[in-house]
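Board notes (copied after class):
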Amino acid sequence: MKKMYIIAATLLLGACSKFLEPKSPTEVTPATAEHLDELLLGIAYPRPDADFLGCLLDAVSDDVSGAGYHKGGNSEGTGFYDKPIVRAVKIAYTWQPDYSRLIQLAGGTSYDMYSPVYRFLTGANAVIDHVATVAGSVEEKNLLLAQALTLRGYYYLHLVNIFGVPYNVDPDGPGVPLKLTAAVEQRLMTRNSVREVYDRVVTDLREAERLFATLPAEKQFRKNYRVNILVARHLLARAYLYMERWKEAEEVASSIISYPGVALVNLEDLVNAGYTNVRASASNDTRKYYNFISHDNPECYWLFGSSTGACLYTQNIIARATGTNATNCAYLLQASAPLVNSFENGDARKLLYLASDVYATTAINLTGYGAIGKYPMLLGDRNNLIPASGSRVFGQALRLAEAYITRAEARAMLYKQGDASAATGAIDDLNAIRSKRFLAASYVPLSLADFSTADALVDKTREERRKELCFEGLRWFDQRRQGMKRVEHRWYTGPETTTASVVSYETYVLEDNDPGFTFPLPREVMEQNTALEQLPNLAAERLPATITP
């Protein structure tokens, strides 16, 4: 089979041309490890301007709900709700199977969570293809290969949990195509099984961990916006958790927790320093946001993606077109009541992880919190909060807290399977997290006596996971692996007033084990590659189950 080794991503990054030596009109090859490193950083890493990283995932999860929707009232109000982004949000929020075409028709953008990831994979694969042949030391090459394998492992774990069926439902079911070289081949890619994708993820991350371990200690883990040994382990622990390989998940998470240089942040210290996401009142905005997606946060060991991309479909606003506050606004989507109500008294995460809304006490916002948080916020021109942006403002991070929560769930599951000693470890992990999240006056340690069954302990670990990782693009993955339970989303159609409840809404439903828990491939991807098969049993349109009134 004829192959043309083209570093396709160089078309996206003209700056790379200075280090590519042409070997033929269709073949180019990096010459040195330094040049390959520039290629890796330029086109394989998800930078702060990369919006693909799950821009729809929070909008489809049960952590969000619709805010009261004002349909008219004046020309601005009527016009606002006809804007493309509002129509696009509804399409995503109501789980429309043909979301890609419908969002395009609505005039929305940035819905594609598939093609951009494969472009990043091309960059990672190019490094893997060429690292053995470039000039450079063994140490330089091991560092390059470890990074590229970690990134490839991340991308495939991300893709298969969006477009493949859940591993614990059907590991031999349809996953995503595995492209393991930057070579352009004269064939169309087909879906690999979910098991094949996960096996590749585990293989890549294990090899990345081994390569990082060959480096001097000071180069294994650095907070320099690059992946490192803790990132490889973190993603591996996550993969094992999703595969229900509990013992391996526990062991890998333990190797992160015991690693020097990272620690849980004490939220009470932040509260005492004046940080809070909650307004004192409508006329007294006392909010001061702590940037959890930062290397100033001792929990973080990798920052990636953009803040605007992370909340692209959850930060959008409703212009309030009634009363005296017509220049103000509230969020179109908000934190759901089950999430908001799960925070206990004294849990500082409610003060710091959730962003309170302008209209926290009116019908337009039913819970009082937007579906955004953790990254730095700015006050917009309509009294709304918008995420800060910039070359060093990231939207996502891998944090030590997830390692603790992963280990807690793995230990709880081992306890459920008969390992009595694992229960104490799971409770210790929960207490390690909760002791750093509650105000000291309200904190009460958990004990085994608090759980009548192993299932109750498992449920507690998952409850803590939901609260700790809210609006980090992971809740949808957890819903899929935790049974794909029924979800309702209400889309409010108005009218809303300052004195009356919202009276009209449509209810959309994902039923238990609904095929809609797996994203269909975007239509244009299917049209470009006729060898790909769409998942079965997808309806052409998801209609509201009920309309009220």
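Comment from the instructor: The longest strand covers residues 300-306. The radius of gyration is 24 Å.
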